[in-house]
Amino acid sequence: MNQRDESSLPPIDRMLPNPSGLNADFYRIAAETGVINIQRCSDCSAYRHPPRFRCAACGSDAWSWSPTSMRGVVWSWTITHRAIDPAFAEQLPYVVVVVEMEEGVRVVGNLRSIEISELRIGLPVAVLLDKRSEALALIDFTPR
């Protein structure tokens, strides 16, 4: 039986996405620039997320990546009390939020540096990127 030596692997502290297509560009641009960029329609100026090839507002396939303000408000949240893997047990409980960005799109990420009793809909938050590689930055939020 062949066993892999895992002593040189970084510790597992988060589930990492395996982005592809336009999603890969979304995560790569965040890692490269330190700013979340959202697709914006070149014809009607509507923002859209998650990334897709056509605008839901006007049907155009013309778009560009547009930097965000990196600010938003909590739209919804869930609190995780049970680890899906023992590697995550030390982080419990942790908060996953849906944040409505100032640009009007909703983005999901972990909320850091907050007491659970302080959570509320409309809580102003700022983006805190967690760069994991040249091609991947995870989205976290912190109260502002």
Can you describe what's shown?
InterPro entries: ChsH2_C (IPR002878), ChsH2_Znr (IPR022002), NA-bd_OB-fold (IPR012340), Thioester_dehydratase-like (IPR052513). By secondary structure, the chain is mainly beta. It has a single domain (about 20-144), classed as OB fold (Dihydrolipoamide Acetyltransferase, E2P), CATH 2.40.50. About 10% of the residues lie in helices and about 40% in strands. It has one helix at about 20-35; strands at about 35-40, 45-50, 65, 70-80, 95-100, 105-110, 125-135, 135-144. A five-stranded mixed β-barrel has the order 4-5-6-8-7. Strands 2-1-3 form a three-stranded antiparallel sheet. The chain is globular. About 15% of the residues are buried.
Structural descriptors:
five-stranded mixed beta barrel, ChsH2_C, Thioester_dehydratase-like, 144 residues, three-stranded antiparallel sheet, globular, 1 helix, ChsH2_Znr, OB fold (Dihydrolipoamide Acetyltransferase, E2P), mainly beta
